[in-house]
Amino acid sequence: MDAHESEQRNAAETFMKILRVLFIAVSFLCAESALMAEGPVGVYAMVQKVVMEPNAQTPARIQIWGVFVWVDGGLKTPGPINVPQRGYMYFKLPASAAQAAAAKSQWNEIKMLAGTSQVIAFGNWEYVGPFEDLHIPVTGNTEEVRVRKQNEAPAKPITYVPNMGLVRIANDKPHADLINLLKAFMQR
User: Fold this and answer.
1) What pTM value is reported for the model?
2) In 103-129, which positions are buried (b, 16+ CB within 10 angstroms) versus exposed (e)?
């Protein structure tokens, strides 16, 4: 190979690198714009532990500890997800007796799955704006749907809404990336 061919090959490789960087940048911008939206959002979690308050026999509140991601589009039409975050979500029972019974049932199931590698999905909230630090600015609601930092003291639990049920995510090919991502964050 002569110097001219070598120079052309280097130019072609440089051009391909530039195209890859541009593709990644455009992909990132498109993903960022998708996360600046409004609509339903669901929660996927790998639960590490559950704390029921005041106790497991008569719970009024629950701390769900683990790794969480928001799923834009909710559980029915999943789209982009945000970066996982370790911490806990803090809930209280809904006022309705029927919804409170459904919530307690889901809480017991979450507690049974704690410490396993089972990924679950739950919740369905409406939001407007970007995903920021796993905080959803909920439309028409004064409660903050968010993952709390591990060192944050429990205060002001949000109402647990069992409207979507609790979904166990299958350990299959369509969910492999999500499951591997949550496992990696759990091990950190």
Assistant:
1) 0.72
2) bbebbbebbebbeeebbbbbbbbebee
Whether residues 95 and 26 fall in one domain: no
Domain range for residue 174? 37-186
CB 138 within 8 A of CB 43: no
Nearest 5°: the CA angle 172, 178, 181 is: 125
Q: Do 38 and 128 meet the contact criterion of CB atoms below 8 Å apart? A: yes
Q: CA-based Rg of the chain, rounded to a whole angstrom?
A: 21
For residue 11, pLDDT beyond 80: no
What are the pLDDT digits (tens) for 16-55? 555 454 444 344 444 443 444 455 667 889 999 999 999 9
* Cα separation, 103 vs 26, whole angstroms: 42
| 130 and 95 co-located in one domain | yes
